Amino acid sequence: MTQAEFVVVANRLPVDNAGPGEGEDGWRRSPGGLVTALEPVMKQTDGAWVGWPGQADLDVEPFDFDGTRLIPVALSADEIEKYYEGFSNDTIWPLYHDVIAAPRYRRVWWDAYVRVNRRFAEAAADAVAEGGTVWVQDYQLQLVPKMLREMRPDLTIGYFHHIPFPAYGLYSQLPWRRLVLEGLLGADVIGFQRVADAGNFARAVRRLFRYETRAGRITVPGDDGTAHIALAKAFPISIAAETYIELAKKPEVQARAREIREGLGNPKAILLGVDRLDYTKGIRHRLKAFGELLEDGRVAVDDVTLVQVASPSRERVEAYVQLRDEIELTVARINGDHDTFGHSAIRYLHQGYPREEMVALFLAADVMLVTALRDGMNLVAKEYVATRADNRGVLVLSEFAGAADELGSALKVNPHDIDTLKDTIIQAIEMPEAEQSRRMRSMRKRVIEHDVKAWSASFLSALDEARTAKENRTR
Ligand code: G6P
């Protein structure tokens, strides 16, 4: 097998298996932003991508897809349960999102996490050429950087953390807190969404290891008396803004937006929420606020509709099962109390949609509600902004989403404060066009200038600097 200069390692491959008969050999590109971000780099460098193909026991040979070498890592049903549903999504996910749900610390899950991380590291080590670069993605693979460094000291290793990194007071709960930090410190560059995340990480490293850290540069001693520098820094991720702008220009997408509005009975205002069905997203808080506004008579069901898209996610993890029950009960109660034959208070959709349909929905919505209790970035906020070339529309944005650091002109909210959330929703509905336009303009400028290409370019250039510095030291 020829080896690649550049290898991405992520929990998921950038494709889904749609089953026989659909698409080329049943594979189709998954819609994620990371895939779009890395596509040009992958093509330029003849890159390879190591990841799980998304189903239990699906054991397929490496194959080429759209100019990229894909290297599947098979996971058994037992590994999915312990490594993916268990340690990744029932331990790390809730812990790193400020224990909104209670993390469960189970030793058998940890053991599986170590085993599976090693399998990803081995697959990457086999795939990458001498002196090459590996870029590891996200919390499912925090041990991979150190494992790779031990297997292949010749490599330059990057890691990007897509979710928050918690304050030490919470992080210190993790029984394996030292091992996880050591895993991450195997990288030359450790990227975070927010400055605060990078700060929390550096503080955890200082508390647990007392390593010297200066301006994000951490001196990490190796077992053999040598040391390397790991740079921990914020690189806020973004979207392929151009793609969204182009889609929003299409006459058929704009026609679809009008059709959606008509389908909802042409209300005066459409409020929109778009999330994976996840307890970090604050969907319940949003529903509560909207339900109370109807109850108080501050909005009328004929005038205002809330569209809530909640795409299915991690459906075998107990906290997600419970959340779905609660949300669906709440939606049914609010609709039961307020619907008329002509209008529904909430149009709730437990489904995922193709990108074009999402853009039409963004164009149809007067107010976008992003009320996450904690969120690494929240790309939906940026997608909404990108599509609004007419500078109309209002973004209500939680201060606990990473996007709040960049989108200063959004209406910021603390989603726990229901009264203020209600007032902010009213303010959004009533906002004069001139103010909408002023706010939207400045947010669009930010999203367009800092798109996902700029993001990957800045991360990769930090990695390049790390490589050069390393070469200079060995010389
Ligand atoms: C978040 C994580 C990603 C993950 C995605 C979907 O955005 O940061 O790593 O891929 O959620 O979750 P899933 O469990 O379906 O991969």
Describe the structure.
The chain is of the alpha/beta class. Helices cover 45% and strands 20% of the residues. The chain has 16 helices and 18 strands. The chain has helices spanning 33-44, 77-96, 107-127, 144-151, 168-171, 177-184, 195-209, 241-249, 251-263, 283-295, 318-338, 355-364, 379-387, 418-430, 433-449, 452-474, and strands spanning 4-12, 15-17, 27-29, 48-52, 63-65, 68-72, 128-137, 156-160, 189-192, 213-214, 217-221, 227-234, 269-276, 304-311, 346-349, 367-370, 394-398, 411-413. The strands form three sheets. It has a ten-stranded mixed beta sheet with strand order 5-6-4-1-7-8-9-12-11-10, with helices on both faces. The protein has a six-stranded parallel beta sheet with strand order 15-14-13-16-17-18, with helices on both faces. A two-stranded antiparallel ribbon has the order 2-3. Strand 10 and strand 11 (217-221) form a beta hairpin. Helix 8 (241-249) packs across helix 13 and helix 10 (283-295) crosses helix 14 (418-430). The longest helix has 23 residues, at 452-474. The radius of gyration is 23 Å and the shape is globular. The chain starts with a strand and ends with a helix. 6-O-phosphono-alpha-D-glucopyranose (G6P) binds at residues 12, 138, 162-163, 313-314.
